[in-house]
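Predict the 3D structure for this chain.
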Amino acid sequence: MSKKGKKMKRQKRAVFDVLSDILKVADKASGVKKTTIVYQANLNFAKAGEYIGMLIEQGFMRNCDGKRNLYVTTEKGRQFLSKYRQLIEEFETDRIS
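Done. Predicted structure below.
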């Protein structure tokens, strides 16, 4: 059976999943480029730019050492990641029980 003409529907990720992916990618002391975020978080450049801007505005990320093209996760971003992981783990534990 040919898959021609049939599109596989991909389930959209929740916004917090996307934000978490971006923060994980950028959690490096040396910072990461937008291109790295795009590829490792599986986003397009436009969406990555929107999310990065939002994360910077909220204090979860910052430009690394004043360089506009390098991004790094802040302490506030790491706290978010920790709390988000705990929430996901609790949800998964409750689902299994």
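The first strand starts at residue 32 and ends at 33.
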